């Protein structure tokens, strides 16, 4: 664990995740005292004169979702509780901002600059501040420079407020050292693997199969199942009925031209000085013919890598820097340009012109998009038509025929969407795996057509439950092939285990086995799919001891062949990180208790419902 954290803490992604996770602690600290405070207000979060609108909270939610849950939809992220975590984190920020305003705390430009320059995510391999990394990191997170600096202000003010309170926080050094030694210890093993191969197991005799089935009969019982006819319409079904005219394609191309544009990019180098005098001196030297990188090396001790800002777009730069870079010609020095970070001297090495795609280039893409959008719009009309037809006395088949829908029969599905053998129910339309449809099958009365409901992925459906069959035991004849397959697997597992047991009964069989690489308690360092299971066994036994690890696909005879204690230098190095982690955790708890008190003093109010409505509405 410690080694993984030690490596991961150097990663900007891990650092950002830890910061985000720390924000989540605010929910636990503030949540206890916000219960009952959720009330009617046009503000999502407010404390004294500080507040955040529902839109601001929704934007922060979407930013967090894109950065930390990129494969989840807004609805899925809401279900995981992400909104509550975001509101909790923002609530604590609002509380501290309210207290900062009361006390009149300020942040100087120098404090801002030092905080940004000392942030390791923005530093290069030499530990120096890199403006290129700064801009790239903010762009990846979807945060502007001004917005980021506003957050820096809030953080610096909060540090002023809490510094005295947390100054005395320390972790227990003896406990830190014990934990470090425990986690840094490593093992080396020798292993013999025996595959679980059911294909090499012969067919069981009738007597063996009867005995096996008798001993495991309950596992073959049929669950209570229902069968139903599911009528549905979806955007996918309707797409075939959608006609896209040439005028629609041309209009969409004109409206969305920015989507098909390639922005102009420029390759830029720069020098950054603390004062204008030095910057002007550097500019003069380059103007007089000296090499740009040589001047940077002489005056700043910068390498060629330090000088390179890289390939940038106008949108990737802020303010004066963007204007200076994109108004400049190739190989012409410009500057000094003043920013928060100092005086910049810049030179553009190369320009790649932007451009727009032609209509023919993107015709197919636009047509597909329009057809999908039109189908979704038409879907709601068809849903209304379906309801009207059912209300007027039409059968499900007749109504779906007019609405352009389809009927699927799902036979013998249990409450979890599984078939009679406990496998996921499969149908050509994949309707049987829709959770809303499974729930409707099990909540509607038999023989009664359900109301029209909406499932995921732009689907409307109605369910007609036809039968229900109670749970019952099944005979061997009903499940014979499945029972034979299971019996073979059991015998194959036993055979592999017996071979592994025989290996550990003969220690000499390990003499010519190559030792593994050394690994940690979590399996880190061991190249094996079952690394964690093997590590659990290796660390649970003494040096020279044996045991068997079963994975379901193999039985592994494991001998612990070496126990490696951590070097003192590694213990000392890692111990500091452990102490920092423990200190930070205690500090967060202290700050959370402070937030509880301040939330009462500044009358913290939370109104989460408007935020939820904005987010849900954005999915329509």
Automatic annotation (TrEMBL):
Chain ranges of the PpiC domain: 263-350
Compartments, record wording: Cell inner membrane
The organism's place on the tree of life at top rank: Bacteria
GO molecular function: peptidyl-prolyl cis-trans isomerase activity
Cellular component, GO, one term: plasma membrane
Keyword Endoplasmic reticulum: no
Keywords: Cell inner membrane, Cell membrane, Chaperone, Isomerase, Membrane, Rotamase, Transmembrane, Transmembrane helix
Similarity-based family: Belongs to the PpiD chaperone family.
Protein name: Parvulin-like PPIase
Organism: Puniceispirillum marinum (strain IMCC1322)
Taxonomy of the source species: Bacteria, Pseudomonadati, Pseudomonadota, Alphaproteobacteria, Candidatus Puniceispirillales
